[in-house]
Design brief:
289 residues, mainly alpha, 13 helices, 56% helix, 0% strand, globular
Length: 289
């Protein structure tokens, strides 16, 4: 029998190939990729409660969405501060990034859509009263974008630290509020009542704001930064609307018009949310230019 030329008994001493020659292979005294990303905790955070194979998909879908939302909040809070200070170029980059995150989340729904109604109903009894409606981070994103409601603080009353953070977000002027204040600084006329409105209330259409945006769109070279900001807002809401649409479509595909978990209306509630407008004057001004 012929012997393998590189059997265990006669294999030549291993030498690093060019591919791995400079790669660090010993991490006993240094930080590795997994250490930096804290992958031990992240990858051990999935705890299916049902015996069904498909629950892992359901958990990871929502966990990864929450990670993307954490990045969204990081960008939106920074963008709001830059707008407040009149530093628009950094805000443009941050808002563009948020729009692309929404695009990422739109695509993610196609993965969850591989779950059939039969598969979902196998895990639904194990979900209890938990629901995406209760997402703390999603609620804060909506508050920063101006869709505010004190009633929606209630699902977080059992977590005082989260409740306090959401209460602060509710009472803080929205990203759009800061943009409107910036328009005044640029010499555009805004009704004083709009400037002094209660920040805990949702954004409502204001004729003076629409008129001011009309001036911006009619004179882009004069108000170039505000013109770009307006388009970043439109891009962001466009992506947000697509995310909402994919959300309601995926839910209807999986559970139809059955009530959602946690006592929510399910598809009916999500369809109502499709009509929510974050930057009303920016959409309406397009009809009057």
């Amino acid at each position: 029998m012929s012997q393998c030329p590189y059997s265990a008994s006669n294999q030549p001493p291993s030498t690093p190939t060019d591919e791995w020659h400079n790669a660090e292979l010993n991490f006993s005294d240094s930080m590795s990729y997994g250490d930096y990303l804290d992958l031990g905790r992240i990858l051990s955070a999935q705890h299916p409660l049902s015996p069904d194979h498909n629950e892992m998909l359901f958990i990871i879908q929502h966990q990864t969405s929450e990670l993307w939302m954490k990045l969204m909040l990081h960008e939106l809070k920074a963008a709001r501060e830059h707008v407040r200070l009149g530093e628009l170029p950094p805000a443009f980059k941050m808002l563009a990034r948020v729009s692309r995150i929404f695009d990422q989340l739109v695509t993610a729904w196609t993965v969850l859509a591989t779950m059939t109604p039969t598969e979902y109903h196998a895990i639904r009894p194990f979900l209890g009263q938990s629901s995406g409606f209760q997402s703390f981070q999603y609620r804060e994103i909506e508050f920063i974008l101006g869709n505010k409601s004190a009633t929606l603080l209630r699902p977080h009353a059992h977590r005082p630290e989260l409740l306090a953070e959401l209460q602060l977000s509710l009472a803080t002027p929205s990203l759009y509020d800061e943009a409107i204040r910036l328009m005044v600084s640029a010499g555009l006329e805004i009704d004083p009542q709009r400037l002094s409105c209660d920040p805990t209330q949702p954004t409502a259409h204001d004729p003076s704001v629409e008129a001011a945006w009309r001036v911006v769109y009619q004179n882009p070279s004069q108000y170039w930064d505000l013109y770009q900001l307006a388009e970043k807002f439109i891009d962001l809401e466009d992506s947000f609307r697509q995310w909402r649409f994919r959300h309601v479509t995926t839910v209807e595909r999986i559970i139809g018009f059955q009530p959602g978990t946690g006592g929510t209306e399910g598809v009916g509630y999500l369809r109502k949310m499709l009509d929510t407008v974050l930057f009303p004057e920016l959409w309406r001004v397009r009809s009057t230019l």
